[in-house]
Amino acid sequence: MPRDLPLGNGTLLVNFDRSYNLSDLYYPNVGAQNHADGHPCRFGVWVDGCFAWLSDPSWQRTDDYEGNTLVTHVTASNPGLGLLLTLTDAVDFDAPVYVKQIHIENLNPAPRDIRLFFHFDCYIGGTEVGNTAYFEPRERTLVMYRDMVYLLMGAICEGREGLSDFATGKKQQGGLEGTWRDAEDGELGHNPISQGAVDCVGQLNLTLPAGGAGTAYFWLTAGANFGAVNDLHAFVKDRRPEHLIERTRNYWRLWANKQDVYLADLSPEICTRYRRSLLILRTQIDCGGAILAANDSDILRFGMDTYSYMWPRDGALVAEAMVRAGYMDLPRKFFYFLRDLPTADGYLLHKYNPDGSRGSSWHPWVDVNGHRQLPIQEDETALPLYALWRFYERFREVEAVGPLYKPLIKHCADFLVHYRDPATHLPRPSYDLWEERRGVLSYTTGAVWAGLAAAGNFAEAFGDIDLAAHYRAAAEEVKQAALKHLYDPDLGRFVRRLYRDEQGQVQKDTTLDASIAGLFMYGMLPADHPGVVVTMTAIEERLWCKTADGGLCRYEDDYYFQVSQDLANVPGNPWFICTLWLAQWHIQKARSMEDLARPVELIQWVARHALRSGVLAEQVNPYDGRPLSVSPLTWSHAEFISTVLQYAERYQEIHLQKLQDAGKLPLLLHKPHVEGVVMKPDGRAEPLVADNPAAAIPGPSQCL
Q: DSSP class of residue 358?
């Protein structure tokens, strides 16, 4: 079930599922320990002897965020109960505190007693074993703990501090489902403490006059011991929960609009999705620098593992997207997170935990014949160098990059130089970015070229002229080798990979795969190179889903979460990143405004298939567009951000070229940077007025 509404601050992350249950709570690292472990933590209402959880179909609910914030705006009406709820959820931008505000309206013409129930299912440390939940009588709070993680549930209603009632209890034993069942009669059992596999429920009571309304608050604080969570509880009471929500709302509006951006003629919907992608992307980044691929714990049901790891490739491309968007601090933390991760030989491994320890892997250290091999995806060593150069190119942060030059840049670049076939100069075999097959990949080759080119640029910048020439010569050899060996003259296009068959003979894998776009995406070949054009045209024709829903899949007969065997029409499920790569190809080769029509269609396709909240999954069902696999996928949001910005830049370049051709601008000696609009902290866009013909670019951004 997708996570519609992630909320986080880099230390505490909570996710709501499509039924508006809080299903994940990560602390103190994003993507590390999940103290709900994907199990629903429910919110319910009792009135006039009737009870309903908010996940019940009797509620008519809309789940969304407030504009340009990481604060939810959820409305829920229940005609049968005669109630209308407006719910606001926020994780404080600074402190590990989650706050829920419930504004409730009595739609009946009589006063009524109403009871609110907040349930938490304890999986502290990611396990149901050894948890404790107890009622703390002085503050009338519920405390849950295991080892060095404590959670505290506090509340306030109509000026009364503390829970009105409570219960703790057992689950998964003797047929017991949990204390949440105890709430459904509107009365809690007052059991003050439980240990083992437990859950707990807090209750608030309020009385509303006929047609009247009231507001109540629950909150959770997180810390390493009781003193820490109790101090945070006192902080919430002192500062007031409504103030924490307001300050968080204001912070994220400033953060989402910290950079003035020019988004050309893109629609208000796309501009809104752009801002939302930035915010959702932020929730998936740990304050220690790790950029997590996804934190949707439902994927556990598929393979008994999660996406809550830092893949160096995903992280590098997310960091690069943030650099494009003008954000410096988070990418810098990511590069410093990477600094000490390369092995003694200079390569990065499959994936890592948020604390930098090595993540789980299925890449073996020996091949089928028992010979040693490196269990790596070599693009994961190359792309961080590419992204780091993009960071330096944008911000010129010499003091930030200097400490990374030897341990990360040179160390990894030396590996990229040496991990090549001496006969062909191509990279040696590694696993592909899909983590399914081994060989010499077109995508990986494009990434290795980009890593070596970046290393050459850094070496020159730091005065290592001979080393710069060395890296650049290796990059050129890789490029020429790709043109010679990865291009199939009979097909007139590039192949996915080279590999050795069981007899040891080199074979070409001619399967059409969207990842072949890596040959142009990172700059090795231009988008209008004849071989690239034929390849990408074939990819668009063959891998586009021929259903009413459309979208580009990864490759022919993609098995992952496969929903159809109609391979002629549905070669695989549509992926957001693949569809956006296709848009990037059209953008890069565009020479006129008319050429930009197709990428706009593809960007709009992505915006249409986002959830109402703006969340992008990994892939979608080719028939109905429902999200499949993890949701949100951080990489999907990064590619959306990058594609939107690439479009706006190309739009600007084409328009300026038209002005120059018409004699209305002097010869452009360098790429200009023109801001079409100024984004205000409240989200409004105002045209930039300047005594400059370039400031008159048509179609100013209509971001809201």
A: B
- Between CA 50 and CA 419 the distance in angstroms is 68
Q: Which residues contact 511 (CB under 8 A, 6 or more apart)?
A: 496, 555, 556
Indicate whether 30 belongs to any domain.
yes
Contact 136, 202 (CB under 8 A): no
Between CA 104 and CA 205 the distance in angstroms is: 12
- Give yes or no for a contact between 518 and 447, defined as CB atoms under 8 angstroms apart: yes
The domain that holds 135 is classified in CATH as 2.70.98.10
Identify each DSSP E strand in 378-481 by its residue range. 430-431, 438-441
d(CA 379, CA 445): 8
Whole-number Cα distances in Å, 527 to 214, 228, 516: 59, 55, 12
Query: Residue 135 forms beta bridges with which residues?
Result: 142
- pLDDT tens, 419-448? 999 999 999 999 999 999 999 999 999 999
Specify the 3-state DSSP secondary structure of 678: strand
Q: Domain for residue 154, yes or no?
A: yes
The per-residue pLDDT for 114 is 98
Write out the two tokens for 525.
Answer: 């070949």
Domain housing 244? 3-255
Q: Cα 435 to chain center, whole Å? A: 19
DSSP designation for 182 = G
CB 396, CB 407: distance < 8 Å: no
Structure tokens at 268: 């208000």
What is the total count of domains within the chain?
1
How far does the chain reach from its first CA to its final CA, in angstroms?
A: 29
DSSP string, 47-70: ETTEEEETTSTTSEEEEEEPTTSS
Positions in the chain whose pLDDT score sits under 70: 1, 300-303, 666-704
Is 113 domain-assigned? Answer: yes
pLDDT reported for residue 297 = 84
Stated length of the chain: 704
* CA pair distance 224, 386, nearest whole angstrom: 38
- The full 3-state SS of 559-598, as one line of letters, equals CCCCCCCCCCCCCCCEEHHHHHHHHHHHHHHCCCCHHHHH
Q: Which helix (H) or strand (E) holds 604?
A: helix 597-608
Ramachandran region, residue 59 (left: φ > 0; alpha: ψ -120 to 50; beta: rest): beta
- Retrieve residue 418's tokens: 């040496």
Omega cis (within 30) before 666: no
Query: CA of 168: how far to CAs of 144, 218, 446, in Å?
Result: 10, 17, 56
What pLDDT is attached to residue 303?
A: 67
pLDDT for the residue 300: 66
Structure tokens at 179: 């204390």
Q: Which residues face 619 on adjacent strands?
A: 575, 628
Kindly state whether residue 656 falls inside one of the protein's structural domains: no
Give Rg (Cα) of the chain. 27
Task: Number of helices (H) and strands (E) in the chain: give both, helices first.
Answer: 16, 28
**CA-CA distance, 117 to 180, in Å (whole number)?**
9
- CB distance 283 to 7 below 8 Å: yes
Instruction: Tell which residue, 486, 483, 479, has the closest CA to residue 453.
Output: 479
CA distances from 74 to 20, 82, 116, 253, 296 (A): 9, 17, 16, 18, 20
